[in-house]
DNA sequence: TTGAAAGCGCTAACAG
DNA sequence: CTGTTAGCGCTTTCAA
């Protein structure tokens, strides 16, 4: 298939230089279109590259360029999970914005474990990324030390409820919880239950709940009941949780879910149990996922700017100085609450 | 906070060696726990590392180790999208299996564009990964050439309907389509419609449909109607597509959807329109997503081994010789068809 | 416009 | 067990 005798080792820049009959530095200049070179040199190099199927070695390139500030073009990203759409969405906004800038993200998944996050940060930093994107504001002391010492820009995404290391891009989960509670209160619901997934991992869900309860307290009331399910959120978990909740406290007139997946499960349960929504019981979610608005009764929820957070985080990489960007959220007045 | 004067530049292995009062190679040996060194050397190095906050530079390490076969510990991955749960699930299986092996995946998103995939492959290969994981079997000639020339193991995930470059891990989308059709036929449905998202991008959906139609043809029948929606799949798209389909052909007795998200939208439409499922009309999806079994009527669908594909792909990285692993799929007899 | 040469930070022989 | 030394493949002065 190939017309030339491939060398046992991979083709190097030196091979290209020899093939093109020019010096190595000339090849380097041509390849990066940096510095000046003759048209003829450019052509010969291009030909040689094509002929040999040369693929630059960025390990070497970045190492050599490191001394003079030429970056690796890498950005290290740590997200807690891939099982919750929120984070792929975040990555989607990020990679979309990075696309064409020549930057490449390297992502690690912490599974909501701060220790693992620290290990990932250390591993990512060893590739000398130009920036570090973390999720949330809660990290181990080691993570913070590593991040600071690395000298690279650090962007913490999603959560703005607290102090950041450097730049923070997100929204207030606490405020989202408060807004949700106020909405339910304004609609007249008073016997409100909470149905959530395991909060020990998802600190942001806890912050929402805290905000929710604070708003209830402000109004002189409180959560009538709560059901916390082990494991990650899902429609199945939401369904089971709702059923448990309503069995224990049939008098509830509204349920606040830890997110839309859980709420969908709750809605499924209402359908099965023949509970009219929202007349008999109201449902409220969080995230504003795709399916929410396609439901026969659009789900009442809070839409979060997930893609935008990713995009803005990407924009911050080149930005100057620490920033604190609150992108807010949108309360969706659906038909379930 | 830090107790020592940080150098302007990042701490290097040479700094650690000086601080520990040993040679550089000793530090290297200690750090990688490779070769032998005295207990005392180990301790002194560990102290120095901690004191200086040393983070190894893997660019340099991998470059130096390259000549002797020490790899980068990187695996390049290209997926078509992050917007469809399928691919994050794939990554989840993959990173889960890679976790603890010291391997780190670097992923690129092609947005279902073969040209972009080629560019990503070239970019990823420039980091000298130890393996390349691609999605599907359809690539540009350039991608194939690059992959072959790189000399690294190539694993193509998800689709087994065709020839692979090297190793293939997945299931037959065509067979999944066939199985779905046979299920509907066996249940007595004869006026079957198809509701799908844009197939120009998602070739695997097209393969499923081809299998589906082939099975219908075998039974001497054919698709009664089809509705193809532009853009990516979603419940909203499925709902709109189903409504268009049923308006055009009210006589349909079953609808095959390009995936579960679309099918969920169809089910929502049935609820809104008051069409009894499956008595008046049956619905059939694809993927076997979480929510499918939590529905009041569990969705009839085909469950795909997404996580397992990722895991097996990871396992193949160390495997020997090309392989062709068909993980199959499971037809879920839900209550909608 | 170009090539020669000196590293980038690390690993891996090779002597000691 | 340990230090010295020679690169890994590339970028970047610096002269020419």
UniProtKB/TrEMBL annotation, chains A, B:
Keywords: DNA-binding, Transcription, Transcription regulation. Coiled coil: none annotated. It comes from the Bacteria. It holds the Pfam family Peripla_BP_1. CDD domains: HTH_LacI (cd01392), PBP1_GntR (cd01575). Residues 11-65 form the HTH lacI-type domain. The keyword Metal-binding does not apply. This is LacI family gluconate utilization system Gnt-I transcriptional repressor.
